[in-house]
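Working notes for the structural subgroup meeting. M.R. asked for a predicted model of this chain before we commit to crystallization trials. I am recording the input and output together here so anyone reviewing the notebook later can reproduce the run.

Input as submitted:
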Amino acid sequence: MIQIPDFLKHLPVYRGYPVPYFVPKDENGVYQLKYSSAEKMNSCLTYHKCCVCFKPLIKGDYWFISGPMGLQSQTDSHPPMHKCCAEYSLKVCPHLFFEKTHRTSDESFAQAFQITQKPKEFFLVKAMKFSTVIVGGVKLIKYASHTVDKQYEYINGELSLKSNK
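Returned structure, recorded in token form:
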């Protein structure tokens, strides 16, 4: 298990992992790691805070983890993050790090806009700007003035930095 860095030590811990701010709890108080709280996501946007640590973001320094379709459309279902929070998520979030984990085991719970098929690669994207758009009644994030900082792919079932050969 990777050690929890100082910048995330204020978050609750569940099963040895820091729980991102956006994760909801069920009626029994158990974290639902496969889901996002719309209320918490809106708080991140309203107060201009990172969706992982809920600390203030710096204007023009917005980071997203995107699959190929999100990169092409410049949209994301999560508000922006700090670079350190995004990089940590890529290393420790089981949904991202392990190829065989899925967002939800019941596709009937997936939102109309969600892609339930996990991409084979992810991109760490830096954006200078973002805005919100409504698609099918769901708020999404549209980023602009962006560059791909790093590209990741699955090797032997685990996410790895893609080498430029």
